[in-house]
């Protein structure tokens, strides 16, 4: 953010005012330089009075811009443009998908070698596990009861799409991730989605983040792709390190797995531009993009203009509800839509009908949105507990990835091998994952622990931090 912010006047055209036009004009002001990063905007009431429109209309426009990542609300202070908003607007990003974006014109690590398994751990702090105790069981039971009351279908789930499920997921993606699409395919887990896209892409090279999510890495190997590791930094995947050869690019832009960096807005635009230039396919694994803490949401890569031709968007219920559902969804690149659909049908990959119906019920009744809001508040509290405990007992350590997701990366001093530290912690009942064991981790460059906080409380957080301090001497 700039050192000095200013309250600005918004010279908006009032001839045809709608929430959409206010949002669109505001983005144009950012792109044109009239609004800079960190500038404070008028309050919704003040702007509504100035424009002669309802406060509800202005609030809806601000909400859209916040959801797209151009604005952020600061409690007790007001609303301002985010850091990076100017670069995003200049790159052509908007507060919503373009009218035709996403519309078809023709119509956790899985392998044991990456995990330190332990029987009956006292506290399991490995990333990837949500707290299923946060689920409202009345809403959960109601959704499954409604799904079970529907007349059974004679078709197999891979033969016939569920209209209610597609409609519900379409609305969920538009509302929560800014993605406008008419094609949402259900898949039994993100691994099936990775493999399906890889199998039909026609590509042999796979660019993956260094370090990388092991389950995805292994799926691409099974699909016969040749992996090429690409470094990440504080702004996420280093697009400038991709080279010129076409390939499939796997990335976790909302919360890089496992380091936790968020792919910056300008790099998202650069990544899509690179894919267009090289004829590549981007696999956007949005595994926990619904959870953010005190930062503006960044637009999904799939929502970048022109991304619909090159981005496969993958979401999952594993982090927002439970891995037990085995539920994921895939928005394929438009040119690969029919091929992906044929692959899923040929290999009989689909969610059980009742699971689809229950998920649709949770979304359409608003119960899922209420759960996400409740869970985000609780996870933020637990993250704060963990960070406070580490700050008290291990103040010299850096903690990455605190802005989003359900885990953080704790960077260890070079003098302490993360695998040895993890082993010491396990003897005291704290199970964590050494970063050096992740695929693509470069010896001597990545030394730390991936620590999940979804299941933590104040006692376990302090106990972990104390034991970690002891392990580090």
Automatic annotation (TrEMBL):
<dbReference type="Pfam" id="PF00392">
    <property type="entry name" value="GntR"/>
</dbReference>
<dbReference type="InterPro" id="IPR015421">
    <property type="entry name" value="PyrdxlP-dep_Trfase_major"/>
</dbReference>
<feature type="domain" description="HTH gntR-type">
    <location>
        <begin position="16"/>
        <end position="84"/>
    </location>
</feature>
<dbReference type="Pfam" id="PF00155">
    <property type="entry name" value="Aminotran_1_2"/>
</dbReference>
<keyword id="KW-0663">Pyridoxal phosphate</keyword>
<dbReference type="GO" id="GO:0003700">
    <property type="term" value="F:DNA-binding transcription factor activity"/>
</dbReference>
<comment type="similarity">
    <text>In the C-terminal section; belongs to the class-I pyridoxal-phosphate-dependent aminotransferase family.</text>
</comment>
<protein>
    <submittedName>
        <fullName>Putative GntR family transcriptional regulator</fullName>
    </submittedName>
</protein>
<dbReference type="InterPro" id="IPR051446">
    <property type="entry name" value="HTH_trans_reg/aminotransferase"/>
</dbReference>
<feature type="compositionally biased region" description="Basic and acidic residues">
    <location>
        <begin position="97"/>
        <end position="107"/>
    </location>
</feature>
<keyword id="KW-0804">Transcription</keyword>
<dbReference type="GO" id="GO:0030170">
    <property type="term" value="F:pyridoxal phosphate binding"/>
</dbReference>
<feature type="region of interest" description="Disordered">
    <location>
        <begin position="92"/>
        <end position="128"/>
    </location>
</feature>
<dbReference type="InterPro" id="IPR036388">
    <property type="entry name" value="WH-like_DNA-bd_sf"/>
</dbReference>
<dbReference type="GO" id="GO:0003677">
    <property type="term" value="F:DNA binding"/>
</dbReference>
<dbReference type="InterPro" id="IPR000524">
    <property type="entry name" value="Tscrpt_reg_HTH_GntR"/>
</dbReference>
<dbReference type="InterPro" id="IPR004839">
    <property type="entry name" value="Aminotransferase_I/II_large"/>
</dbReference>
<dbReference type="InterPro" id="IPR015424">
    <property type="entry name" value="PyrdxlP-dep_Trfase"/>
</dbReference>
<dbReference type="InterPro" id="IPR036390">
    <property type="entry name" value="WH_DNA-bd_sf"/>
</dbReference>
<keyword id="KW-0805">Transcription regulation</keyword>
<keyword id="KW-0238">DNA-binding</keyword>
């Amino acid at each position: 953010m700039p050192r000095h912010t200013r309250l600005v006047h918004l010279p908006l055209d009032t001839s045809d005012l709608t929430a959409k036009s206010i949002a669109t004009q505001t983005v144009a002001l950012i792109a044109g330089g009239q609004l800079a990063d960190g500038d404070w905007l008028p309050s919704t009431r003040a702007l509504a009075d100035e424009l002669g429109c309802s406060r509800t209309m202005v609030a809806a426009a601000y909400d859209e811009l916040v959801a797209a990542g151009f604005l952020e609300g600061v409690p007790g202070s007001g609303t301002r443009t985010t850091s990076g908003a100017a670069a995003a607007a200049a790159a052509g990003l908007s507060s919503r998908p373009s009218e035709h974006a996403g519309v078809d014109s023709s119509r956790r690590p899985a392998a044991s070698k990456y995990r330190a398994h332990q029987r009956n751990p006292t506290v399991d702090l490995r990333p990837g596990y949500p707290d299923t105790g946060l689920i409202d069981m009345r809403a959960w039971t109601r959704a499954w009861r409604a799904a079970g009351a529907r007349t059974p279908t004679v078709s197999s789930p891979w033969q016939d799409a569920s209209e209610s499920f597609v409609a519900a997921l379409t609305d969920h993606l538009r509302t929560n991730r800014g993605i406008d699409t008419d094609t949402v395919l259900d898949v039994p887990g993100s691994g099936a989605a990775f493999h399906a896209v890889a199998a039909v892409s026609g590509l042999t090279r796979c660019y993956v983040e260094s370090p990388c999510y092991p389950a995805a890495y292994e799926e691409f190997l099974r699909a016969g792709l040749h992996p090429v590791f690409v470094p990440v930094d504080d702004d996420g995947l280093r697009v400038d390190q991709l080279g010129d050869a076409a390939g499939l690019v796997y990335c976790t832009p909302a919360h890089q797995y496992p380091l936790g960096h968020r792919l910056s807005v300008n790099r998202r635009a650069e990544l899509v531009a690179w894919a267009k230039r090289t004829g590549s396919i981007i696999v956007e694994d949005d595994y926990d993009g619904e959870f953010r803490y005190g930062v503006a949401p960044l637009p999904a890569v799939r929502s970048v203009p022109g991304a619909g031709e090159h981005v496969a968007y993958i979401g999952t219920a594993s982090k927002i509800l439970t891995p037990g559902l085995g539920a994921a969804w895939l928005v394929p690149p438009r040119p690969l839509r029919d091929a992906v659909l044929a692959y899923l049908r040929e290999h009989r990959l689909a969610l059980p009908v009742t699971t689809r119906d229950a998920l649709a019920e949770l979304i359409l009744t608003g119960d899922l949105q209420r759960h996400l809001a409740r869970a985000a508040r609780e996870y933020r509290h637990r993250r704060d507990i963990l960070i406070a405990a580490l700050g008290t007992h291990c103040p010299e350590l850096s903690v990455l990835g605190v802005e989003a997701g359900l885990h953080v990366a704790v960077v260890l001093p070079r003098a302490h091998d993360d695998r040895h530290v993890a082993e010491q912690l396990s003897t005291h009942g704290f199970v964590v994952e050494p970063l050096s064991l992740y695929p693509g981790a470069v010896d001597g460059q990545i030394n730390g622990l991936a620590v999940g906080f979804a299941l933590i409380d104040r006692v376990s957080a302090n106990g972990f931090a104390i034991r970690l301090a002891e392990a580090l001497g």
